[in-house]
Amino acid sequence: MIHLVDVSLTHSSAANADYEDPKGNLMRWRTCDVEGTISTGPYQRWNTAEVSRQLTDRQEERFTWLAKVVSQLGVFIAGVDFYVMTGGSLTLFFTIAFLPVCLGGLHLYKTARLLVSAIIATLAWGILLAFYSNVDHWVNTHNMQIFIGKILTGACAFMVVIWARRHVPLSRISVLFGLGFLVKAALRGDFTWKFGLANPVTFIVLGLCSSIKNKAAQGAITLGLGVFGMATGARSYFAFCFVTALMYMWQNATANKGSETGESTMHRWRPALLMAVLGLVVYFGASSLMTSGALGKSLQQRSTKQIEAAGSLIGGGRPEWAATRELMKRQPHGFGIGVVPTWGDLRAGASGLASINVFAGGPTKDYMFGGAFELHSGLSDFWVNGGFVGIGLTFLILFILIRNVSALLAEREATTFVIFAVNLALWSMLFGPLYTDWLPICIALGLSMLPSDAHRTEEVDTSAKALSR
Prior knowledge:
- The protein has helices spanning 48-80, 90-97, 99-106, 110-133, 141-165, 170-188, 193-209, 215-231, 235-253, 265-292, 297-310, 313-317, 320-330, 343-354, 363-369, 378-410, 416-431, 434-448, 462-466; strands spanning 2-8, 16-20, 26-32, 44-45, 83-85, 88-89.
- By secondary structure, it is mainly alpha-helical.
- It has a 4-stranded mixed beta sheet, with no helix packed on it.
- α4 (110-133) packs antiparallel against α16 (378-410).
């Protein structure tokens, strides 16, 4: 249907033009001679400024809708973590394709820009360090490409999450990442709870449960996941869920107490101190339960054996730290990206393992020194590949994670999936393999990024407004 519209223009014109209004009607403009007025008659009244405004609004709506769809697709792709070539993931190519908008998201966060810069600096230093180590070590360029691709993929996933936060709630990001992570487990054929399903299912369930108004129910669901994990032998997973549930319920139990506004530095760091104390309580309490047989004979035998060998559950469960200690004594400045361990490196690592009664043979030897350094710790792996710069990056990540979750808890704005993601990332930076845990670490950084870090307050995240209080 065609509507005739008289519109006044700056200059007189006898020409007619067609225009489709925001409702899809075809409007035919008929110009008038008097500037700033609209002719009377049986036609619909329009003003040139109004036409321009509605056209601009329509373009912005289309762009916003497209940004929502594409950013959510990017989060899902990040979870799948699929590699199409050596060192080249779909996440990496996706971020390159949408680099301007991803960088635009970084512009809103000073901490995010600092983090990405530190990651790039670590990779650059690791490459230079590898050339230095090439004097007495062999550098495997294939391994170098894999490591660089893995680290850049995590950084790109972080950038995608930051971008998505401007358009969709955090809970949806958690669910989409969990779904992608679940697809990744299916592609690997790993359907065990401990190694394949626990983390993706937790991101999905906690993201969906964030809409439940009953805060106690959210805490109970989180604790239930942890109990189920303990039944399957996932000891660290149980600790993550247990600490998450307790911190979340503490946050809501104290929501209406006191008059603190969260502006003081001590107030923002108090939850971090509480988490540290709670972590120690959980560690010693769980150790006592496992060694007493209260959680089953299998866990009792395994835990007792580890304590007898290394003196503690952490020492026995993560013997790689003993090997790292000896490697640091041998070459304090690190080795570099792609450097292959020599026989001397193997002997140094074996002596460290022997100090806690762990035999460095068979699977242990192949995992830690089989063509590349695998030290089962984000800190250790960043040191061995990036030297002192890598250590600096590690402490920066730890600081950002602890500061973010502590501030969110202090402001009563932390959700269960954010607390869980940060707990998982903190553990991975100290005791988890970087190659498999780097992606969840970057997702935790993106999910926990503080809205108060925004460079422009008028562009605060949509997701920040959706956080449960």
